[in-house]
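Exam revision sheet. Question 4 asks you to relate a sequence to its structure. Input first:
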Amino acid sequence: MRVRPLALTSVFGVLYLFAMSIFYRQGLIDARVLKAAVVLVSGLAAFFYTCFGWRWNRRFKDKSLRLPITLCLIGMMLVLLYMAPQTHILFLPFLFLMMAFAMHRVPPRTVFALSVVTLAGYAVVILLHRARGLGTHVLQLECMQLLALSLTLPGFTVLASRVQHLHNALFKATRKIKDIEEDARRDVLLGCFNRRYIVAAIEQQKRLADESGQPLCLAVMDLDHFKRVNDEAGHLGGDEVLRSFARIAQGNIREHDIFGRYGGEEFLLILPDTSLLAALNVAERIREQVEHFSWDGKLRNRVTVSIGLTQYIPGESVLDLFSRTDTAMYMAKQGGRNQVVVEEPAAEQPVTI
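Answer key, structure tokens:
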């Protein structure tokens, strides 16, 4: 459900009622007009909240219902203008407020048609006032305001077209910039984060861990005997092994975990707000799935991964954290590969799993 148009409409209604209450306290309108304003504003708010609540708005192309909301509010102001000609002072500023609300999503031609309908409605109100026999001074003021609207609303329509064009151009440019930024931090071959981003992410997560006191774990993952994989399956087959490994790893981590390629067949996994035991479960799950994955038939040997895992010690440098994790990974290699070696932050001796 789109709440923003409803919220803006509610703010508009509250402001309009506030202005009408001031008119009432100054004796410019009577209680009948103020009560009518309260009933109209409340009724429109209840109607549109019902439309959104029951999802009737989904039947329309513009699910925000900006045009119907704008038409109803302008109609409400015209009704109150007919009841209390003194409120013509409020009509002009609140009209442009509503037109600005509509111009963001409504096509320029529709904004122009809305302007024509508004001018016609205002002219009808003037004719009704004349039929009621209002004073010449009031009618002259209303005619002058109608003339002012006739001169300014077309220009507002042109402005709406320009603003929409600028908004669309900025939206496209923003999307392109986001795509460029995304490409700059992604490994083109694997789709995971690249070395530059993952190294910067370690520094950022270290600062966050220092500020929050939450645990932070880092894993270094290195595919075993990858040169043999390239020899058996070729470089294209080796690339496919890397892609499959990246998919396995990313399929076992949370949305806010950070996985990236450090270089060659070596990968880093950053696990914010994660205890060492929970991080070990993730690393072991990845290792096991890699071991039992159905690799290409050209590979005569199974693909396995050696993983080093450590927990950040508050106050240590990123270099020290990475060095401890990398050392744990090399111990996994020396210990026979296809295993996770954990270096406890408070212990001297690493633990092999």
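Marking note for examiners. The radius of gyration is 34 Å.
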